[in-house]
Every structure is written in C-alpha cells, then in structure tokens.
Amino acid sequence: MGERGRPRKFDAEVALDRAIEVFWRHGYEAASLSDLTGAMGINRPSMYATFGNKEELFRMAVKRYAEQDMAYAREALGQPTAYGVIETFLRANADALTRPDRPAGCLSIQGGLAFGSDDGTVAGFLAGSRRAGEEALADRLRRAHDEGDLPAGTDPIALARYVMTVSEGNAVHAAAGADRAALHATVDFALRAVPSPG
C-alpha cells in the first residue's frame, strides 16, 4: 500500500478514517477527489500511490468500517440464544446509527444512495457486503433452529432478512434525523415478531 522510495509523511489509517467520513456524508458518487484528499490531508498522487483510485479507496473504507464500526454485529452472533443475537444486534445497531462522533446512519446505506457513472459496480459491491452480513446471521439462526432454540418451521433465512430490513430501515431513518429513542422504539416492535421456542 505504500509509495516506493521516500516514506509516507502521513498516517494511512487516519487518512482512511477521514475518507470514511466523506463517503458516509456524501455517498460514493458525490464524494469528489478534492473532498477526499482535502479531508485526508494528502494530495492526489499520494492518494493514488497509497490507496489506488476512488473505487479502491471506497472498498478499503468499507472494509475498515466493517471491521471497526460494525464489530458489534460479529459480537452479537456470539449471544447464546437467537433472541439474544437479534436483540443485541438491533440495539447495538440503533446505538451505532446515532453515535455523536459519526455521521447519522450507515456507511453501506449512505455510501450507495446515488449512482451514475460506475455501471453499478459500487452498488453491487455494497449489496454483496450487506448480503454477507445477512448470510452470517442466517447461519447463526439456522444453528439456533437446529438446536431447538427457534420453533420448528421457522425459516432462518427469512428471519435474518427481516432483521436486516429493520436494521437498514433504521439506518435510513437515522440519516433523516430520527433519534436513538425512536430507533429503539422500532426495535421494541420488531422484537415482538421474533419467534420463541416455547
């Protein structure tokens, strides 16, 4: 990821964190190279040498966002019950969508709201990223079903899709100004639909 010859004079992780915020606030399409390099505190040659083109930078930003800002999703999968997995995920998601130190909403939703010049490549990449999260949740719920923690006849794939639909809907509402309490109220309703083994 580095330039040959002279060492970099900037912190690549800090620059990437600043790029995340630009993509998050403006979306992929509207984030200009000037916006990005200005926020990152580097010039275009340094950006290209370290991160590649705009799309490569965006992919790195989404990967870092998934590792850091969405660590709660992986932690939720470790809960002992299906209900616990879903509640932990949706509650932590509502908190993450309304962090005071981050833009409201979710990078993977906000980053891909408008496209025009990339033939859908970035939209497909973001959809694949969200699908991977949904599949991980479905795998965990399938295990819960097999262990008798969900009632017979429960469709783990449909349940995972439902949970992700709530999460993504909350992301859109957070970006539009819904506060944390409003998102948690939505989670309260959503949890009533989670089937219990009893």
Keywords, separated by commas or semicolons:
single chain; about 200 residues; mainly alpha; Tetracycline Repressor, domain 2; about 70% helix; elongated; HTH_TetR; AcrR family transcriptional regulator; Tet_transcr_reg_TetR-rel_C_sf; DNA binding
**What is the distance, rounded to the nearest whole angstrom, between the alpha carbons of the first and last residues?**
53 Å
Q: Tell how many strands the DSSP assignment holds.
A: 0
Integer count of domains: 1
Order of helices and strands: HHHHHHHHHH
Helix content: 55-70%
Molecular structure report:
- The protein has ten helices and no strands.
- It has helices spanning 12-30, 33-40, 44-51, 54-68, 71-76, 82-97, 107-110, 121-146, 156-175, 180-191.
- The radius of gyration is 19 Å and the shape is elongated.
- The chain has one domain (12-192): Tetracycline Repressor, domain 2, CATH 1.10.357.
- Helices cover 68% and strands 0% of the residues.
- The protein is an all-alpha fold.
- Residues 9-69 form the HTH tetR-type domain.
- One of its GO terms (molecular function) is DNA binding.
- Pfam families: TetR_C_13, TetR_N.
- Keywords: DNA-binding, Transcription, Transcription regulation.
